[in-house]
Amino acid sequence: MSLNNSDIGGEAGSPVIDQVDTPAADTVATMARQAPVRLPETVRRYLVRVLALLAALLVWHWASSRGFNLFINFENVPGPLVVGQALIEALSSADFYLHILHSLRRIAVAYVVAVVLGVGLGILMGRSRLAEDIITPYIELLRPIPAVAWIPLAILMMPSEESSIIFITFLGALFPIVINTVHGVEQTPKVLVRAARSLGASNAAILRHVVLPGALPSIVAGLAIGMGVAWFSLLAGEIISGQYGIGYFTWSAYTLIQYPQIIIGMLMIGGLGTLCTLLIKLLCRPLLRWQVGENDR
Amino acid sequence: MRPATKSTPESALQEQTRSQENTMTSAIDMIQRLPQPPERSAKTPGGERGHIEIRDVSVEFERSGDWATAVHRAQVDIRPGEFVCLLGPSGCGKSTLLNAVAGFVTPTRGELLVDGAPVTAPGPDRGMVFQQHSLFPWKTVRDNVAFGPLMSGLGRNEAMSLARTFLGLVGLSAHANAFPATLSGGMQQRVGIARALANYPSVLLMDEPFGALDAQTRTMMQESLLDIWSEFGNTVLFVTHDIDEAVFLSDRILIMSASPGRIIADISVDLPRPRIQDLLTRPEFMALKRECLDLIRRETLRAFEQQNGQAG
Ligand SMILES: Nc1ncnc2c1ncn2[C@@H]1O[C@H](COP(=O)(O)OP(=O)(O)OP(=O)(O)O)[C@@H](O)[C@H]1O
Ligand SMILES: [Mg+2]
Could you tell me the residue range of the domain that residue B63 belongs to? Predict the structure, then answer.
């Protein structure tokens, strides 16, 4: 694999680099000028990641086509080609997109509520000891409860099926966001608060100019984790019901014993979850621009 | 006796012409163009500001149930425009006394007045320059300096142009858009000074601001600090444990000793200004340095003996 890797770098170094469309493109280009033979670090690392996934596909193909059965049994597992075919079929049906759309909408609603409430609660808890003492026991008690365990209560308490699914998804996203926000807010360096005060800042200005930006790296980490947890909570929620949703799609494939569809559903959840997390990170990146160079101090 | 003559126009003019022979010419030009809101400027004719009265101030901290004295009954009167150094060994309570003047720490005894008003909280009339990194890392250099003016209610444009001026003053115009993390330690400290000055404080409090710098950068920073101070004429209370630095900079040195933190001597430094590095090798400088050293040594020995006596 490493041989393969350097081959690509050797012949196609600059054209590959010219097409790179990331914020790091400038530095990538200058690096390429200095050392035209070697691929830049980031590109090389992503290449390794893609190759690692391809390798897994190959192993999967080999194991399922050979009927590998040694402790782990691949005999009845559909191979990547079968799943691929089923995926093409699914992609050409409108229903499949409806499943995805419904899931995305639930994620969006649940996530936005979780972000607003989570960051708000987190700041409150980080700034007020009383608020922290009141809210912490709830968070500690509720946090370890898995999303699936919430299903019955969610159905009892929420006015509709849709809202109970969103509630369960929301709960999943909420806890990591709250906890990371509290952590970030509590880490505000005292000297910066003092500096702001001696420059005439009010409490509100300190919150806005010192506490919040200082907590942002931690909040962003919480947002990314929260997005991941939202996706696996969504799956639990969509088991409840609905006619649509990628979780429902997977669950109904399971009850109908459609193995390729089960795998498609699983991969879809993994892929969409990853994409959404990536999106959150990208959206937050401009807010963290100041961290450049902070770590190599 | 400079502070007394500072407000007369002739002496200000003399100071300017004299300073222009220095390297900071462009910076001085800039100061003359500084927009100076009359009620905020330290050089306002008529009412000089920056009078610090420390009246019998003690600061005690509770430490695991016990009370430890960090500052013991300090009594100082600092005239407007004076450059005063607090000199003493590590842990003797210099920062604590400075923080009390800044309003970060509340004295457990005595009274603290700045321009007649008791100190109850930090405020923009007392600018602070810290020893550690204290710039807002998420704000650009310019936004850091503009923060004080913005907080005092100036409009964004005014604050930005003030920030530009003050960055010019410390020679960092070229780095206005950089984030602090990309600057060297010396540059960051200069931004810190510009940020504190941008509020036109009547008192500038500095806690070992050059402690982390190399010797060369340090002397450069000392000279430019004196240049800036000679133009602004504000009161400076400067903490250091470096005797050379204290003698080089100040009109007056307050020597503190530990156990418990007490001001044990008040030495006036009558060396001529402007001060340049040549001063460091002159006999008058040496004599003052020796005086400080002797005082500190005598005090340290006395403190040791006292402790031994208590132990025995
Ligand atoms: N917030 C605090 N709580 C408890 N004790 C403190 C606190 N701040 C300072 N002290 C104690 O007060 C004494 C004086 O501390 P201070 O920081 O004023 O010393 P310093 O002269 O500035 O020393 P250095 O030169 O090392 O900065 C020390 O013994 C210190 O441990
Ligand atoms: Mg100190």
Answer: 46-125+235-312
Pick the atom of ligand 1 nearest to B96's CA.
18
Mutate to test the pocket of ligand 1, among B87, B94, B237 (most ligand atoms within 8 A of CB): B94
Asked if A16 contacts A25 with a C-beta cutoff of 8 angstroms, the reply is no
User: Which of ligand 1's atoms lies nearest the C-alpha of B94?
Assistant: 21
Rounded distance between C-alpha atoms, residue A273 and residue A267, angstroms = 10
In a domain, A206, yes or no: yes
pLDDT at B200 over 90: yes
Confidence of residue B35 (pLDDT cuts 50, 70, 90): low
Q: What is the pLDDT of residue B278?
A: 86
Residue A297 forms part of a structural domain? no
Q: How far does A284 lie from chain B, in Å, by closest CA?
A: 14
The CATH number given to whatever domain includes residue A237 is 1.10.3720.10
Q: CATH number of the domain that B291 lies in?
A: 3.40.50.300
Q: Are B181 and B135 in contact (CB under 8 A)?
A: no
Kindly report, residue by residue over A139-189, the tens digit of the pLDDT. Answer: 999 999 998 899 999 999 999 989 999 999 999 999 999 999 999 999 999
Tens of pLDDT, residue by residue over A47-106, are 999 999 999 999 999 999 888 888 888 888 899 999 999 999 999 999 999 999 999 999
How far does residue B130's CA lie from ligand 2's centre (Å)?
9
| Domain contains B76 | yes
Q: Is A39 strand, coil or helix?
A: coil
Closest Cα in chain B, distance from residue A17 (Å): 27
Range B190-219 average pLDDT: 92
Does residue B285 contact residue B249 with C-beta atoms inside 8 Å?
Answer: no
Mark yes or no for CB contact B151/A210 under 8 Å.
Answer: no
Which domain does A36 fall in, by range?
2-53
Domain count, chain A: 2
Residue-wise over B209-240: b if at least 16 C-beta within 10 A, else e?
A: bbeebeeebbbbbbbbbbbbbbbbbbbbbbbb
Question: Are B209 and B193 within 8 A, CB to CB?
Answer: yes
Overall size of chain A counted in residues? 297
Q: Is residue B36 part of a domain?
A: no
Q: What is the pTM of this model?
A: 0.79
For an interface test with B, which of A190, A199, A207 has the most B Cβ atoms less than 10 Å from its Cβ? A199
